Automatic annotation (TrEMBL):
The keyword Membrane applies. It catalyses: UDP-alpha-D-xylose + L-seryl-[protein] = 3-O-(beta-D-xylosyl)-L-seryl-[protein] + UDP + H(+). Its cofactor is a divalent metal cation. This is Xylosyltransferase 1. Belongs to the glycosyltransferase 14 family. XylT subfamily. Residues 1-36, 57-175, 856-875 are annotated as: Disordered. Pfam families: Branch, Xylo_C. Residues 9-24, 79-88 have a biased composition (Polar residues). Keywords: Disulfide bond, Glycoprotein, Glycosyltransferase, Golgi apparatus, Membrane, Metal-binding, Transferase.
Amino acid sequence: LGKPAAEEIQSQPGQLRETLSQNKNAKRAGGVTQPRMCEFSPVFLSLLLQDGYFSHRPKEKVRTDSNNENSVPKDFENVDNSNFAPRTQKQKHPPELAKKTPSRQKERLQRKLDSQDKGQGQSVLGKGPKEVPPPRDRAAGNSSRGKDASRHAHRKSGGGGSPETKSDQPPKCDISGKEAISALTRAKSKHCRQEIGETYCRHKLGLLMPEKVARFCPLEGKANKNVQWDEDSVEHVPANPVRIAFVLVVHGRASRQLQRMFKAIYHKDHFYYIHVDKRSNYLHRQVVQFARQYDNVRVTPWRMATIWGGASLLSTYLQSMRDLLEMTDWSWDFFINLSAADYPIRTNDQLVAFLSRYRDMNFLKSHGRDNARFIRKQGLDRLFLECDAHMWRLGDRQIPEGIAVDGGSDWFLLNRKFVEYVTFSTDDLVTKMKQFYSYTLLPAESFFHTVLENSPYCDTMVDNNLRITNWNRKLGCKCQYKHIVDWCGCSPNDFKPQDFHRFQQTARPTFFARKFEAVVNQEIIGQLDYYLYGNYPAGTPGLRSYWENVYDEPDGIHSLSDVVLTLYHSFTRLGLRRAESSLHTEGENSCRYYPMGHPASVHLYFLADRFQGFLIKHHVTNLAVSKLETLETWVMPKKVFKIASPPSDFGRLQFSEVGTDWDAKERLFRNFGGLLGPMDEPVGMQKWGKGPNVTVTVIWVDPVNVIAATYDILIESTAEFTHYKPPLNLPLRPGVWTVKILHHWVLVAETKFLVAPLTFSNRQPIKPDEALKLHSGPFRSAYMEQSFQSLNPVLSLPINPAQVEQARRNAASTGTALETWLDSLVSGTWTAMDICTVGPTSCPVMQTCSQTAWSSFSPDPKSELGAVKPDGRLR
């Protein structure tokens, strides 16, 4: 990130230095250093047409993920956000497994080539005005109406979304900007490419962005009201307490964490308006279900895909504000936005007492640095467009004259007067700011600040959003959103128990904190909950347990990958074999079962913040009575990390693991359980203790002892984690792999991981030709261009011809033989811990899930929502 290429190469494992040196002008994996952009020539466009073009994320580059300054930029201001060239790197997957280029994209590129040949300067879109959708259709295309989303009918107005660009004839122009061409080349849908072309041309012709905006603030400079805070003083309930409209903008699948947070902030005197991301259907079903229980809770009847940094988040807030103002039966004084990753750190009574004292104020947190630096870092001087769930950067733009631009956090508390002004005002400031921020990255981090500071309400701003955010920029600023937005951004870290003291500070008023994630650490949420509302009674079940759904039957089987579907079925069979061996009585079949259909639901299960495995709910036929029953099976991964015996004198290595979806910010694999298939690209992670600088050798060995990769890693004295994804040729050979870690060629430790053979392809039983193609390993067992066969005798890893022949026969298996092979591999790396019944059963010794501590059907009082208590609360 801004470092010279040579310096980057020095930090890489030795095995890759030569490759990086030879390809220093190639795109660097991980999006850190990229080639200089140039305008596309007709020759280049013809090449795109010849080979076909499709978006492709290049492989990660080697990077040590440590706490020292070498793993992240010393100054995040220096991150190079200037270059988003089209990705022309071909996939290394075999051609038959790669995606084919959409013909429409070829046609569009051909039109671009033709127009350049003719020299007519026509639009790259090459379409008439009738085929370009107006901007208003964009908002409609990003929303979906829920059938039972709200019990309160209110008019759906367009005022909350992006303002309309009025033009009957969209202008055509020569699209020559390198960023716009890059966006056009990477965009997947025709609709999105049309929007990019239209937006670019309007901007180029000066028809899109306001040049000057009126300022209505009578003050010079920036107003900032000071508010007094004395946490120790128990304030009396005011005579006219404020009522709050909590707007929860949520996504994902953490329904139990959301319900726990909702339980903590609920009071009968306030109002709760919940927007669930358009892509989070499971969470939406859960929210609609619990919202029905309370008159002061409603769910938005519309939904948007609120991507990180997208303009849709601002549209969501503006539409929510309009909806709330049009609810005549809800009389509220303050608008507060929260996510499912927030949690209160003060009580509801304290919040009400404070806001009642300052009911005329607006609470927003500003950036606290000089404006020019903020504008550059935030990308406010760049034009962005959201479509295809991506924020495309299209070029530069000017900040409008006449106003002061400000920004900071997109979490705020706004009073009703200002919300009414932002929603209904048609003055020059509000109208033009809505236009400007419709094409802005992270607009919610700046729109309300800028409007407030230039409006007649400018003297009501308090530079404090009443929250604590857990920023750790060494870990959180890793450009982790580049697949969503053409920019490098940062994200806060999750709180841990050691952070609890920060919530008790009294330097400034704070009432909420973020972020919290129960799959990362639930203990800190429990600490806060008990601090605010006291401990649960002794013997309360489930307090240290956490369950999170990863699949639900209404999601549809299409939502699962072939890898997880294959393994979920195998887990089910593993559980039924356990039931037969431990519950079955000789001479009767009452506890013997036959699996039926696909799994009904799957949960992650954690106990004391440790991953315990998967809980699979599945339907079966009881062989004794031939009746359907529903069971839940708990499977747990076996321990696969092993220190060498006898142990070496090298003591820095603490743990090693292999998986996918490595989260460098929270330092864990988001693919819990490490479910891998032949076409996955695994990442090796090591955790280190402190000590002297050392170099270790990492060796990847496939199931038949073919050495797939070997490389060196320099471990600096302060490094805590390293991770690397070797560029292996696919498919990987199914079976149990081994990753060995050596110091001076002496084994320190090893870890194993399973690459599962697939029983499904496109959610259908796999065909023989597909199975053979996927399960035979790479061509000639060459995982990389370089062969490491000479290391086999050095490492005492003989290649057994009988083993190789068995692997060849396994690769050709299908049906029952394939399932038998898969189940033998799974049983070597996973254990069926227990099984229970969800409903009636003919097995007399089968336990009931609702009375089983580990089951997702067991009581979970900390997250369960019940009747409102006499004091108006749920907690």
